[in-house]
Design a protein that fits this description.
By secondary structure, the protein is of the alpha/beta class. The chain contains four helices and 15 strands. A hairpin with a 4-residue loop joins strand 14 (158-160) and strand 15.
Length: 182
């Protein structure tokens, strides 16, 4: 399903608060919510209006340097992106990220071959995690803090460690709150 830029921004805001409004949008743009502020400008980089797109790309570049977040504007990301702590996140432009994904601080989704990870819906990726090369992460998966994922992760499981191994099938995806379901 294709979403408009406005729908993606609403979905991202919903993930932080479980609701959305224009007042809440304004508050978060003026406030210190780095994660939402970054995703707002990232989403606007895909605007159909050339002037908005140019301004958004300049802001995206500025915030990428300021917050040390590198998510290329053409990365395919579903609605409901949540950037926990809004700092030090690197995502390869070939990555595909589903809806309602949490990216914590110091997460790297990388590739040396140009083929990056495919991440399902409702996935939580914990702090200091690395997802390397062309792996598939199933829906409702939880990637524990410090995990190094080098193999596919099935749906509805929790993995942790280096290399990441299955540690639980209980309450997968429990850290993905305020899921955007449209």
């Amino acid at each position: 399903m294709n979403y408009s830029v406005g729908e993606l921004i609403k979905a991202d805001l919903y993930r932080y608060y479980g609701r959305y409004s224009f007042a809440l949008l304004c508050k978060n743009m003026l406030n210190a919510n780095r994660g939402f502020r970054y995703s707002f400008w990232l989403r606007l980089c895909q605007s159909r209006n050339w002037l908005i797109r140019v301004i958004a790309r300049l802001m995206h570049r500025r915030l990428s340097t300021r917050y040390q977040i590198q998510i290329p504007p053409n990365t395919r990301i579903g609605p409901g992106l949540y950037l926990g702590h809004g700092t030090a996140i690197i995502v390869n432009e070939a990555a595909v990220i589903g809806k309602n994904c949490n990216l914590s601080h110091f997460v790297t989704i990388g590739s040396n071959s140009g083929k990056s990870a495919i991440i399902g819906d409702n996935v939580y990726i914990g702090p200091n995690s690395c997802i390397i090369e062309q792996v598939v992460i199933g829906n409702d998966a939880t990637i524990g803090a410090g995990a190094v994922v080098v193999k596919d992760v099935p749906a509805a499981v929790t993995v942790a460690g280096n290399p990441a191994k299955l540690i639980s099938t209980k309450a997968p995806g429990r850290f993905v709150t305020h899921r955007f379901e449209h």
